[in-house]
Structure prediction request, 516 residues.
Amino acid sequence: MKILIVDDEEHVREGVQLSMKWADYQIEEVLMADNGLSALEIIRREAPDLVICDMSMPIMDGVTFLKTLREEGWDSRVIVLSGYQEYQYTRATLQANGIDYLLKPFKIVDLERAVAKAIRSVSESKRIQNDERRKNYQLYEANMIVNEQKMAAYLQSEIPNYEGVRQLLHEEHFPLEHIHVLIYLPKNLHEVVERYYGGDEALYYFSMKNIVGDVFKTFCRYYFFRMDPFICIFVADCISDDEVEFYQTKLLESWSVNIKLDALSARSKQARGYAELLTGIREAKTEIVNAHLVAGNVRVDESRKLPSFMDKELLLLEALKNRDKQYIAELIHSFARQLRELPYLSLRELQHCSVEVNLLIMRISADHPAQTMPLWICNLDEWEKAVIHSFWSIIESEGDSLSSLQSVHAVRHYIDSHIGTDLTLASLSKRFHFSPQYLSKKFKESYRTTIMSYLTNLRMEKAKSLLIHSDMSMLEIAQLLSYDDDNYFGKVFRKHTGVSPTQFRRNQRTAGNGSY
Prediction:
């Protein structure tokens, strides 16, 4: 706190200053003036919490000083020191909401009592003001959050509510035309929230949003909202494309420096009107989906092959059956390393891997759905951790059923990959260490069909594809699908489709579906 002592007599000013231990009253600075006019200049510059003033002064007396103090709206507490007991001085003190009126010469104890009373009044006033500010801020934040949610809902609804978008922008006095759309996709969100904010996501968003304000409010109007998992920012005021790009990058740098947040960023190809904002968002999302995630050669090699997560299925199933979390982590780390070694990996391709992960999780945990992978993870470290967590959660949720259920899925995967070999219930039982009766029962429970019916359906679908798209003979197709001869193959095919293989091929080519 600050105190201002106003008196035209220097010895009085110094006497007041030296008579008190101001630090005991939380007063850190003592200011002085020798008349009301000088005092007003100091008040306008320093805004002291407490004023101790004389009433009889040259240039501007105490009555005029206190009147001007209140007219200008200053709420400093006032203690009057005067050598005169006059009504006009007392009245001026009361009108200025004075704390006390002390006659010179005054007793130190009376001054101490008056100062203590003034400090209590200042503290209580600040507490009330802070409470009011806090309530107003909380109300403002609540309204802002509601409006953010409305904006996201209006733009994400099946039929975008552009009238609602217009109303929200209008309420914020935001332009309705020439709006640049910026979107950001956090890369290491989970790490930042856990490491720097103790898991408090609300506090993280508060900090992140404050930085948005620091970057944009100095040069243009902006509108901020979240469209999970994206951060969306509308920028207006007819700034140039180069300026938009500059501040787009500046925000990324500010997040990185201040809260250690990394993100992918993109913007609309051109400024949009309020009824075209969803188009702008889609343009920016497309750019982000195609962004490369691995440093290196950014030229896409169309012939390169993206590793398939499904290739890890059998090993993962075996690790799940053995409840071996360490081996699961090693398998997933190995796959992530394959992705990191690619010269180019787009977010779209990583999403494809996430879809494969989710398909496998849903197959394994059909009866007890496990936690699946979100599709917008764009950081390989976080992606790897999320995949590991998903498979570990299967071990923790499936219980004893893992020992059989996972192996049944492994049987199906093996059949899918070996339809051209001689598969029988007996050979599968031997390979997977089940009795034929148990395997047959579990397979039918899981897939609502028998093993041999499932295998036959696969072979017939493959046969139809070969008959349509190749000129292989019936014998060649039969042998490829592990049938002893083409006659037996023909009987099975006719039973499955209602026509012979030859007639099926003829019908398809007559219909124009052949390959030549």
In short: Residues 219 and 506 are 71 Å apart (CA to CA).
